[in-house]
């Protein structure tokens, strides 16, 4: 009995396994094949009733499952086996072709994991080269072409039968495509696309423009580039095919002894996008005798660094007759020293054919203008502009603000217009306010001037002292500008023992004010390039007799001021946290407007 029971058990197991195979494999396949037959019959019925749709010659006509559904040639729905989901409407079809004088029907049904065993894919196109290409602007585009075309049914196909379409235009930066299209004898179509990106590489653009020279000369109209919202001039190409750029104007004032420290502050305020482009490089910084200021070579260099200032040899190499874009509007430091106490300044105000007379020396402790230079990667892509002053090259390091964006989310260097008055962002504070500096002096039309603390021996910037410039700025200058977006904010006034030297404040005092004067060591405190600013007071002051901060003749005035000394007002303020941008691009030509 035990032996018989084991036999029965195995018989039952086999029967169950066969039943399971039938349910899982055989029956679904039977249902699928029935559906194939249903689809084919529906197509045959369609062409019987629409004989004008039958193909002629070697042509193929196709009718899809969705077409047959819509025209009621399919009775009921065709479902995926064991489900209530219909088979693929678009990918299921019947093709009809005339073979040996008779119409032959080819059915392809796609139902989930089930599909008909018939050629339903277009030919395979293999391209020469990559499916993505990058070309430089104005470079000639040559299509690498097609390597081969093969098909499951038709075998190897002549590549000349592939239809090629292209919209590539290398005269314009952008992304284009080349499409390759072919169908097999079953009218299965394949489309393969090659993406062609046309870019403008900075190095290639500058190299072509210089036509063999290493740097620009004179005052070219097409060597402007915007980096970190600041306007630069392209000087030229270095020995590693990177690009040297110089600020288009003095950014601030500093003593020669503090240049390195100040440049650390400057670098910190650059955009992260710009920082990624900078290549650490060596810069000329040799000591020159007064009779060797016409040099165009250099024998002494710094260690690798991110930013520096122009050398006399660089400036001389940019000379074309008496024109030189490397000369700043005001007195600006060069990298060259005369001796341990004196260094050289340059200015475009000097007029001389002989470069020897384009420089003057000054005590290293004097505060003068600074025009940073840096080197950026030659492979940098130009994303816009044509290199002119009004439309400088851009490199995508800054994303322009959209309407409704908060001002305190924006970047150092961007311009903002409030009722026509233009300000520049210095930085965003931790409390969400935005520190801005006016791009103008109040007084060009209104004659808003004030004197420095009457007969007092020591002139300290003090908003609480009615005789102080600070009091005038905080209480009276507000009448000349729209204050709707400004808030009271704490400021820190630097006070020096004698000479005003960056980082050597004797003490600081804090006040809460609406407006203040600029700090000469901050970003954008220098006179703007257009030279239309009047002399203006600074927040910097000293314990020395009648020594206080004031800009006169485009540079800090560092002598004792008389009680009759007058200057105009350039303000610094804080925009409230919720200030939003309405329109504009953040540039001087098209500043953001606020709402």
Tell me the overall shape: elongated
The value of Rg in angstroms is: 38 Å
In whole angstroms, the N-to-C terminal distance is 97 Å
Average predicted local confidence, pLDDT: 90
How is the largest sheet built, in terms of strand order?
34-26-25-24-36-35
**The number of domains:** 4
Largest sheet: 6 strands, mixed
Low-confidence stretches: none
Q: Output the number of helix runs.
A: 7
Structural class based on helices, strands and sheet pairing: alpha+beta
Overview of the molecule:
The chain has 595 residues and is α+β, with helices and mostly antiparallel strands. It folds into 4 domains: 13-115, no CATH class; 124-200, Sandwich (Immunoglobulin-like); 213-382, no CATH class; 407-594, no CATH class. The protein has a 6-stranded mixed beta sheet, with no helix packed on it.
Key attributes of the depicted protein:
30% strand, 6-stranded mixed sheet, 5-stranded mixed sheet, 4 domains, elongated, 595 residues, Immunoglobulin-like, alpha+beta
């Amino acid at each position: 009995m035990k032996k018989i029971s084991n036999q029965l058990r195995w018989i039952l197991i086999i029967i169950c396994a066969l039943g399971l195979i039938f349910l899982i494999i055989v029956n679904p396949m039977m249902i699928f094949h029935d559906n194939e037959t249903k689809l084919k019959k529906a197509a045959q019925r369609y062409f019987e009733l629409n004989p004008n749709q039958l193909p002629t010659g070697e042509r193929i006509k196709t009718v899809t499952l969705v077409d047959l559904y819509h025209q009621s040639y399919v009775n009921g729905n065709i479902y995926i086996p064991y489900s209530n989901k219909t088979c693929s409407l678009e990918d299921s079809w019947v093709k009809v072709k005339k073979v040996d004088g008779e119409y032959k029907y080819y059915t392809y049904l796609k139902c989930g994991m089930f599909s008909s065993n018939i050629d339903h894919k277009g030919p395979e196109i293999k391209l020469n080269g990559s499916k993505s290409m990058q070309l430089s602007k104005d470079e000639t585009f040559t299509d690498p072409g097609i390597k081969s075309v093969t098909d499951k049914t038709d075998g190897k196909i002549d590549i000349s039968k592939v239809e090629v379409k292209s919209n590539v235009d290398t005269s314009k930066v952008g992304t284009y495509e080349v499409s390759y299209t072919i169908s097999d004898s079953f009218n299965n179509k394949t489309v393969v696309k090659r993406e062609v990106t046309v870019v403008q590489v900075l190095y290639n653009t500058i190299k072509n423009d210089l036509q063999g020279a290493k740097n620009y000369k004179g005052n070219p109209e097409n060597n402007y580039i915007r980096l970190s919202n600041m306007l630069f001039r392209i000087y030229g190409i270095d020995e590693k095919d990177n690009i040297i750029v110089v600020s288009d104007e003095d950014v601030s004032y500093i003593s020669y002894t503090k240049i390195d420290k100040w440049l650390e502050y400057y670098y910190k305020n650059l955009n992260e996008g710009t920082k990624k482009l900078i290549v650490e490089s060596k810069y000329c910084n040799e000591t020159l005798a007064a009779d060797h200021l016409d040099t165009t070579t250099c024998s002494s260099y710094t260690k690798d660094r991110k930013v520096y200032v122009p050398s006399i040899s660089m400036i001389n190499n940019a000379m074309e007759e008496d024109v030189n874009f490397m000369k700043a509007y005001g007195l600006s430091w060069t990298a060259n020293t005369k001796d341990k106490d004196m260094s050289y300044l340059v200015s475009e105000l000097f007029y001389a054919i002989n470069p020897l007379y384009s420089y003057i020396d000054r005590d290293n402790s004097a505060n003068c203008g600074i025009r940073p230079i840096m080197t950026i990667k030659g492979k940098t892509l130009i994303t816009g502009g044509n290199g002119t002053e009004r439309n400088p090259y851009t490199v995508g390091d800054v994303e322009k603000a959209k309407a409704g964006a908060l001002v305190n989310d924006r970047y150092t260097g961007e311009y903002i217009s409030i009722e026509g008055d233009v300000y520049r962002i210095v930085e965003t504070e931790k409390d969400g306010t935005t520190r801005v500096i006016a791009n103008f002096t109040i007084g060009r039309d209104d004659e808003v001037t004030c004197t420095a603390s009457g007969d007092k021996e020591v002139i300290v910037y003090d908003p609480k002292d009615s005789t102080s410039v600070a009091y005038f700025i905080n209480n009276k200058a507000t009448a000349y500008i729209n204050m709707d977006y400004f808030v009271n904010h704490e400021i820190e006034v630097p006070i020096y023992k004698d000479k005003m030297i960056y980082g050597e404040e004797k003490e600081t005092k804090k006040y809460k004010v609406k407006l203040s004067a600029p700090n000469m060591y901050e970003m954008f405190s220098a006179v703007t390039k257009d030279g239309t600013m009047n002399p203006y007071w600074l927040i910097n002051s000293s314990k020395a007799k009648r020594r206080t901060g004031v800009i006169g003749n485009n540079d800090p005035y560092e002598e004792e001021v008389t009680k009759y000394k007058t200057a105009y007002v350039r303000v610094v303020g804080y925009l409230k946290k919720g200030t939003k941008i309405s329109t504009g691009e953040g540039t001087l030509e098209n500043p953001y407007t606020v709402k």
